[in-house]
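Final report, section 2: Outcomes. Of the targets proposed, Peroxin-7 is the one most frequently requested by collaborating groups, and we therefore present its record in full.
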Amino acid sequence: MLEYRTEGFNGCAVKYSPFFDSRIAVAASSNFGLVGNGRFYILNLTPQGILPQQSYTTQDALYDVAWSEIHENQALVASGDGSIKLFDIAVNEFPVQGWKEHSREVFSVHWNLVAKDRFSSTMMGHEYAIRKVSWSPHLSHVLLSASYDMTCRVWTDGSEGTPPGDADLTRSGPTSTIGRELGRMGRHTEFVTGIDWCLFGSEGWCASCGWDERLCVWDARAIMA
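The predicted structure is given below as C-alpha coordinates.
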Protein backbone atom coordinates (compact mmCIF):
# COMPACT_ATOMS: atom_id res chain seq x y z
CA MET A 1 0.00 0.00 0.00
CA LEU A 2 1.19 3.51 -0.84
CA GLU A 3 0.59 6.41 1.51
CA TYR A 4 0.96 10.19 1.49
CA ARG A 5 0.27 12.42 4.50
CA THR A 6 -1.61 15.69 3.95
CA GLU A 7 -0.15 17.08 7.15
CA GLY A 8 -2.30 19.73 8.83
CA PHE A 9 -5.16 19.20 6.38
CA ASN A 10 -7.99 16.66 6.47
CA GLY A 11 -8.80 15.05 3.14
CA CYS A 12 -12.30 15.74 1.81
CA ALA A 13 -12.17 14.39 -1.76
CA VAL A 14 -9.81 12.46 -4.04
CA LYS A 15 -9.99 11.90 -7.81
CA TYR A 16 -7.86 10.05 -10.32
CA SER A 17 -6.97 11.96 -13.47
CA PRO A 18 -8.99 10.82 -16.52
CA PHE A 19 -5.85 11.32 -18.62
CA PHE A 20 -3.01 9.87 -16.49
CA ASP A 21 -3.32 6.75 -14.34
CA SER A 22 -0.49 7.94 -12.09
CA ARG A 23 -1.91 11.39 -11.21
CA ILE A 24 -4.28 12.06 -8.31
CA ALA A 25 -5.93 15.26 -7.08
CA VAL A 26 -6.90 15.79 -3.43
CA ALA A 27 -9.07 18.53 -1.90
CA ALA A 28 -8.37 19.02 1.80
CA SER A 29 -9.32 21.33 4.66
CA SER A 30 -7.90 22.25 8.03
CA ASN A 31 -9.95 21.51 11.16
CA PHE A 32 -12.14 19.01 9.30
CA GLY A 33 -13.58 21.77 7.11
CA LEU A 34 -15.20 23.61 10.00
CA VAL A 35 -12.90 26.66 9.96
CA GLY A 36 -9.58 27.60 8.39
CA ASN A 37 -7.70 27.18 5.13
CA GLY A 38 -7.90 24.61 2.37
CA ARG A 39 -5.24 22.93 0.30
CA PHE A 40 -5.38 21.42 -3.19
CA TYR A 41 -2.80 18.71 -3.92
CA ILE A 42 -1.58 17.19 -7.18
CA LEU A 43 0.18 13.90 -6.42
CA ASN A 44 2.03 11.45 -8.65
CA LEU A 45 2.30 7.69 -8.19
CA THR A 46 5.94 6.72 -8.82
CA PRO A 47 8.21 3.72 -8.17
CA GLN A 48 9.52 5.76 -5.21
CA GLY A 49 6.03 6.17 -3.75
CA ILE A 50 3.54 9.04 -3.85
CA LEU A 51 5.33 12.29 -4.61
CA PRO A 52 3.83 15.80 -4.62
CA GLN A 53 3.85 17.61 -7.95
CA GLN A 54 2.02 20.76 -6.89
CA SER A 55 -0.06 22.16 -4.03
CA TYR A 56 -2.13 25.29 -3.57
CA THR A 57 -3.32 26.80 -0.30
CA THR A 58 -6.69 28.56 -0.31
CA GLN A 59 -8.23 30.96 2.17
CA ASP A 60 -11.22 28.70 2.85
CA ALA A 61 -11.90 24.98 3.11
CA LEU A 62 -12.03 22.77 0.00
CA TYR A 63 -14.70 20.06 -0.08
CA ASP A 64 -14.58 18.46 -3.53
CA VAL A 65 -12.53 18.23 -6.72
CA ALA A 66 -13.27 17.30 -10.34
CA TRP A 67 -10.75 16.89 -13.12
CA SER A 68 -11.48 18.57 -16.43
CA GLU A 69 -12.71 16.20 -19.11
CA ILE A 70 -11.27 18.39 -21.87
CA HIS A 71 -7.91 19.63 -20.52
CA GLU A 72 -5.37 17.31 -18.91
CA ASN A 73 -3.87 19.99 -16.63
CA GLN A 74 -7.04 21.56 -15.27
CA ALA A 75 -9.27 20.73 -12.30
CA LEU A 76 -12.14 22.36 -10.41
CA VAL A 77 -12.43 22.61 -6.62
CA ALA A 78 -15.48 23.38 -4.47
CA SER A 79 -14.74 25.93 -1.77
CA GLY A 80 -16.20 26.96 1.55
CA ASP A 81 -16.32 30.61 0.47
CA GLY A 82 -19.10 29.85 -2.02
CA SER A 83 -16.84 29.72 -5.06
CA ILE A 84 -15.73 27.19 -7.65
CA LYS A 85 -12.10 27.59 -8.64
CA LEU A 86 -10.37 26.34 -11.78
CA PHE A 87 -6.70 25.42 -11.36
CA ASP A 88 -4.18 24.77 -14.11
CA ILE A 89 -1.32 22.75 -12.69
CA ALA A 90 1.08 24.35 -15.18
CA VAL A 91 0.48 27.63 -13.30
CA ASN A 92 2.32 27.59 -10.00
CA GLU A 93 0.48 29.95 -7.68
CA PHE A 94 -3.15 30.92 -8.26
CA PRO A 95 -6.34 29.54 -9.80
CA VAL A 96 -6.72 30.63 -13.40
CA GLN A 97 -10.44 31.35 -12.94
CA GLY A 98 -13.05 31.53 -10.22
CA TRP A 99 -16.84 31.72 -10.13
CA LYS A 100 -18.73 32.83 -7.03
CA GLU A 101 -22.40 32.15 -7.72
CA HIS A 102 -23.24 30.43 -4.41
CA SER A 103 -24.12 32.24 -1.20
CA ARG A 104 -22.85 29.46 1.11
CA GLU A 105 -20.33 26.62 1.04
CA VAL A 106 -19.95 24.60 -2.16
CA PHE A 107 -19.83 20.92 -1.18
CA SER A 108 -19.75 19.19 -4.56
CA VAL A 109 -18.52 19.72 -8.11
CA HIS A 110 -18.72 17.36 -11.07
CA TRP A 111 -17.74 17.63 -14.74
CA ASN A 112 -20.32 16.67 -17.35
CA LEU A 113 -19.07 13.41 -18.88
CA VAL A 114 -21.12 13.64 -22.07
CA ALA A 115 -21.33 17.34 -23.02
CA LYS A 116 -17.85 18.11 -21.73
CA ASP A 117 -17.90 21.77 -22.80
CA ARG A 118 -21.23 22.68 -21.18
CA PHE A 119 -20.80 25.14 -18.38
CA SER A 120 -23.46 27.06 -16.53
CA SER A 121 -27.07 26.66 -15.50
CA THR A 122 -29.10 27.39 -12.37
CA MET A 123 -31.47 25.02 -10.61
CA MET A 124 -33.42 25.87 -7.46
CA GLY A 125 -35.36 23.39 -5.38
CA HIS A 126 -33.72 21.73 -2.37
CA GLU A 127 -34.76 22.88 1.09
CA TYR A 128 -31.33 22.28 2.67
CA ALA A 129 -27.70 21.99 1.59
CA ILE A 130 -26.82 19.80 -1.41
CA ARG A 131 -24.12 17.31 -0.48
CA LYS A 132 -23.37 15.69 -3.85
CA VAL A 133 -24.12 16.20 -7.53
CA SER A 134 -23.46 13.82 -10.42
CA TRP A 135 -24.01 14.26 -14.16
CA SER A 136 -25.61 11.37 -16.00
CA PRO A 137 -23.02 9.42 -18.03
CA HIS A 138 -25.71 8.80 -20.67
CA LEU A 139 -27.85 11.95 -20.98
CA SER A 140 -25.90 15.19 -21.38
CA HIS A 141 -28.56 17.46 -19.85
CA VAL A 142 -29.52 15.32 -16.82
CA LEU A 143 -27.92 15.36 -13.39
CA LEU A 144 -28.65 13.95 -9.95
CA SER A 145 -28.35 15.65 -6.56
CA ALA A 146 -28.32 14.43 -2.96
CA SER A 147 -29.30 16.72 -0.11
CA TYR A 148 -29.57 17.18 3.62
CA ASP A 149 -33.33 17.54 3.02
CA MET A 150 -33.34 13.70 2.74
CA THR A 151 -34.18 13.65 -0.99
CA CYS A 152 -32.42 12.78 -4.21
CA ARG A 153 -33.57 14.87 -7.15
CA VAL A 154 -33.19 14.49 -10.91
CA TRP A 155 -32.72 17.68 -12.95
CA THR A 156 -32.39 18.91 -16.49
CA ASP A 157 -30.00 21.80 -17.00
CA GLY A 158 -32.32 23.29 -19.63
CA SER A 159 -29.92 22.74 -22.52
CA GLU A 160 -31.92 20.15 -24.50
CA GLY A 161 -31.68 21.00 -28.17
CA THR A 162 -29.20 23.85 -27.70
CA PRO A 163 -25.78 23.92 -29.41
CA PRO A 164 -22.68 23.16 -27.33
CA GLY A 165 -21.26 25.97 -25.23
CA ASP A 166 -17.86 27.57 -25.20
CA ALA A 167 -15.30 24.94 -24.26
CA ASP A 168 -12.77 27.46 -22.93
CA LEU A 169 -13.70 27.87 -19.26
CA THR A 170 -11.06 30.54 -18.70
CA ARG A 171 -13.25 32.90 -20.71
CA SER A 172 -16.69 34.10 -19.73
CA GLY A 173 -18.54 31.02 -21.02
CA PRO A 174 -21.98 30.81 -22.62
CA THR A 175 -25.14 32.41 -21.38
CA SER A 176 -26.59 30.63 -18.35
CA THR A 177 -29.63 28.42 -18.81
CA ILE A 178 -32.34 27.77 -16.27
CA GLY A 179 -32.81 24.14 -15.35
CA ARG A 180 -35.75 22.46 -13.67
CA GLU A 181 -36.48 19.50 -11.46
CA LEU A 182 -37.65 16.35 -13.23
CA GLY A 183 -38.48 14.31 -10.15
CA ARG A 184 -37.39 13.30 -6.68
CA MET A 185 -36.78 10.17 -4.63
CA GLY A 186 -37.73 10.56 -0.96
CA ARG A 187 -37.18 7.11 0.54
CA HIS A 188 -34.25 8.15 2.77
CA THR A 189 -35.07 9.16 6.34
CA GLU A 190 -31.81 11.03 7.09
CA PHE A 191 -29.28 13.18 5.22
CA VAL A 192 -28.43 11.80 1.77
CA THR A 193 -24.66 12.05 1.38
CA GLY A 194 -23.71 9.93 -1.64
CA ILE A 195 -25.01 9.28 -5.16
CA ASP A 196 -23.73 7.69 -8.35
CA TRP A 197 -25.00 6.56 -11.75
CA CYS A 198 -24.50 3.07 -13.15
CA LEU A 199 -22.25 3.21 -16.20
CA PHE A 200 -23.60 -0.04 -17.65
CA GLY A 201 -26.92 -1.36 -18.90
CA SER A 202 -30.02 0.84 -18.74
CA GLU A 203 -29.32 4.55 -18.56
CA GLY A 204 -31.42 5.41 -15.50
CA TRP A 205 -30.06 3.20 -12.72
CA CYS A 206 -28.37 4.93 -9.81
CA ALA A 207 -27.46 4.37 -6.16
CA SER A 208 -27.72 6.57 -3.08
CA CYS A 209 -26.63 6.31 0.55
CA GLY A 210 -27.23 8.35 3.65
CA TRP A 211 -27.02 8.74 7.40
CA ASP A 212 -30.06 6.48 7.77
CA GLU A 213 -27.67 3.51 7.29
CA ARG A 214 -29.34 2.60 3.99
CA LEU A 215 -28.12 2.08 0.44
CA CYS A 216 -30.84 2.47 -2.18
CA VAL A 217 -30.56 1.34 -5.80
CA TRP A 218 -33.27 2.78 -8.04
CA ASP A 219 -34.24 3.81 -11.56
CA ALA A 220 -34.30 7.59 -12.03
CA ARG A 221 -36.51 7.21 -15.11
CA ALA A 222 -39.36 6.06 -12.87
CA ILE A 223 -39.56 9.50 -11.21
CA MET A 224 -38.75 11.74 -14.19
CA ALA A 225 -41.69 13.88 -15.29
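The CA atoms of residues 2 and 48 lie 10 Å apart.
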